[in-house]
Amino acid sequence: MRRRKTRTRRLEVGAALAAALSLSACGGAKHSAPPPPTLSSSLASSLAAQSDAVAGALASGDSCRAQTLARGLQARTIAAINQGRVEPRLQEQLSSAVNTLVATVRCVPPPPAPTIREQKHPEKHGHGKHKGHDKQDRDD
Questions:
Q1: Which residues, in sequence order, are bridge partners of residue 86?
Q2: CA–CA separation, 55 vs 67, rounded Å?
Q3: Radius of gyration (C-alpha) of the chain in whole angstroms
Q4: Residue 39 bridge partners (DSSP)
Q5: CA 45 – CA 133 distance, rounded (Å)
Q6: Is 61 inside a domain boundary?
Q7: Domain-located, residue 102
Q8: Range of the domain at 15
């Protein structure tokens, strides 16, 4: 169930980044409504690529790497907001989506590899006599 939630959150972040990217490409039509907020295409592309890297790590089963990448995406998003590279109208939606992603991705380390001792001495089943071990060849 956790994987489905992660996938849903990943889609939400992707949708937010896609919306921001598409808004950055919109032309200015003359309407009485204010123009839509924009992101520079380089920032939008960078954040989208980082989001895709998180998705790729999750898809490959590397949740610890995905968590590290998600935290990096969060730090870069916060830096972009603090540097004024994200319009105020997009800040809440973008930071909320990234924060949700970070909160959703959990590092689940893989089980430990078997020790050398376990590999050299597999479990022995039955220590009794086995078929054919105490028979001798007789030519009667």
A1: 39
A2: 10
A3: 28
A4: 86
A5: 71
A6: yes
A7: yes
A8: 2-26+37-106
SS3 at position 86? strand
Whole-angstrom distance, CA of residue 88 vs CA of residue 6? 27
Q: How confident is the model over 27-86, as pLDDT tens digits?
A: 555 557 777 777 899 999 999 999 999 999 999 999 999 999 999 999 999 999 999 999
In-domain check, residue 42: yes
- What's the predicted TM-score (pTM) here? 0.59
Selection from 75, 73, 81 nearest residue 37 by Cα: 81
**Residue among 87, 73, 79, 78 at smallest CA distance from 40:** 87
Q: Which two tokens stand for residue 22?
A: 């598409």
Q: b/e map of 54-89 (b: 16 or more CB within 10 Å)?
A: bbebbeeebbebbbebbeebbeebeebbeeeebbee
What is the count of structural domains for the chain? 1
Cα-based angle 31, 13, 69 (whole degrees, multiple of 5): 135
